[in-house]
Each structure stands twice: as structure tokens, then as C-alpha cells.
Amino acid sequence: MGTEKFKTVVPLLRCPVCGGTMEEKEHASLVCALGHCFDLAKKGYVNFAPQKRHGPYGAALFESRQRAFRAGFYDMPLTALCEAAARHIKNTQPALLDAGCGEGFYALGLKRYFGASSRVIGFDLEKEAVRIAARGNNDVAWLVADMTRLPLQDACFDAVFNVFSPAAYAEFKRVLKPGGVIVKAVPGERYLIEIRQAAQEKLKSGAYSPARVSEHFKAHWSVLEQFRITETLPVAPEQLKDFLALTPMLFNVDTEKLSTEHIKEITIDVEIMVGASA
Ligand SMILES: [Zn+2]
């Protein structure tokens, strides 16, 4: 098991080395006409970037993130992303791509929302994250892959999701069908404001502003929708530890020394943009 779900997505894949189409071989690997071969890991993902060295983030970071996701802190943005996409996707059996899927919370949510007839691929260059995403034998096809050189065919996705992740817009445009949409989410101005205020004096950069990301998006896509969702939720001390661990902007700060005892709530603030090829 674990390989079955790749059957339906094999036509969407292409060889990351030569760009050729891929075929499944003996339920154990994917191979192109030139013989470039990638194992279908029993764990439920394919590594299309085996040469990649480990990134700066260890498994512990992704475990923290998964706990924060499972505790419900990101349910509202997930629902908003699904509903925003559904307003623009015409196909009842959509092919969806989560570009920079991390430990898979959004890709799994998309699969639940769009149902069994949808095909969902999630990829990330961080193998540790993808390994966590693939746990539990779920129905998303997971890839370890390089965003700037996607092992995916041209014009085959109804939507590309890009949530709290860097982007590669030229590649996203290449893999989108005509009429396909990009759904991008970035942290809003008040995202985790409680933690950032606690760290204020120790932060190198000034106030975070999503405006630059938004301008870059508008330069590449014609915007169909743009909106912001904000929610402040109570946070338990144990949960706060997970947020401290996953806040990239705190990586240069010694979080042990932050005074966070007074933090009793966490603000989730997300800007969502939906765009089409301009
Ligand atoms: Zn090849």
C-alpha cells in the first residue's frame, strides 16, 4: 500500500532529469523512457530530488508545526483557502497542487474538501517535512521536489496552492491549465503579533509587511480575489512552545530568553490572494 494513490497522478508527472513522461514499474518505481528511475517509497512519497542535502530545518520543527495545525489554529485559513478555490475551479474532478506543502496540513485539507474524485499532489524540498506528511497512509501523492524545476507536466493543474511558502511563478504558470488559478496565502500584518511583540527588541528586521509579497503577486497574476482573515485564539503554554519553535522570524532570537509567560492568546492573520495567468 502507499503506491496505489500514485496510479492516478502518474500522468501528471514528468522526469525531473530529462522532462520525459513517467511510467510505473512493478509497483515499486517510476521510470522515464531514458531510464531515470525513482523509487516509490513504501512510506507513501517519491523523492524527485535525492541529491538535495538536508535543509536548515530538522524534523523537530515540522513536528511542532504539525501539532499547531492539529490543535486547530489553522482551521480557519484552511477553510477560507478551500472555499476561495472552489469559487473559481469549474472542474468537478480537479487536479490540485500544494506547492511547498511542508508537513501536509493544507494538502490533506484540500483532499478532504474536494473529495475522492480530486487528485492532490503536495511537494516540498524538505524531505523531513514530506516524510511527516506521508505518515498515516493518506490519499495525497507526496513528492520531494524542487520548486524551480517541477517534475510535473505542462498545463495539467486546475489550481496551485502556495501557502506560507516561497513561490516560483514561472513554474506555477507552466503547470496550470488554461483558466487555472493560483491561491496564495501569506502571513498578515498581525500574524503571531503576540510573539513578535515579545521579541521586538531582539528582532533584526523591523515590522513585517505583507505588501511586498502582494505587489510581487500582482506583477505576475491578474488578481481575482484578495482578502484577509484574522482570528485570535487562546493558547496553552505547551502550545505556545510549538509556536515559538515554528516562527521563522525568531530563528535569530534566543526564544529561551523571551518573556512569554504573559502570552495567553495567539493571533492568526492571513492574507489570501487568488490569481489567474495575466
Ligand atoms: Zn528522464
Structure description:
There is one protein chain. With about 280 residues, the chain is an alpha/beta fold. The protein is built from 9 helices and 11 strands. It has a single domain, classed as Rossmann fold, CATH 3.40.50. An 8-stranded mixed β-sheet has the order 4-7-6-5-8-9-11-10, sandwiched between helices. The longest helix is centred in the first third of the chain and has 12 residues. The termini are far apart. The structure holds zinc ion (ZN). Zinc ion binds next to loops.
Concise synopsis of the structure shown:
By secondary structure, the protein is an alpha/beta fold. The chain has a single domain (4-277), classed as Rossmann fold. It has helices at 4-7, 59-70, 75-86, 105-114, 127-133, 169-175, 193-199, 211-220, 237-246; strands at 22-25, 29-32, 37-39, 45-47, 95-99, 119-124, 141-144, 157-163, 176-187, 221-234, 265-277.
Bound molecules: zinc ion
How many runs of DSSP E, i.e. beta strands?
A: 11
Q: Which fold name corresponds to the CATH topology?
A: Rossmann fold
CATH H-level homologous superfamily name: Vaccinia Virus protein VP39
Residues in helix, %? 25-40%
Any low-confidence stretches, pLDDT <50, length ≥5?
Answer: none
List the quaternary state of the chains. single chain
CATH architecture: 3-Layer(aba) Sandwich
| Spatial order of the strands forming the largest sheet | 4-7-6-5-8-9-11-10
Biggest beta sheet summary: 8 strands, mixed
Overall domain count: 1
| N-to-C series of helices and strands | HEEEEHHEHEHEEHEHHEHE
The 3D shape can be described as globular
Give the class-level CATH name. Alpha Beta
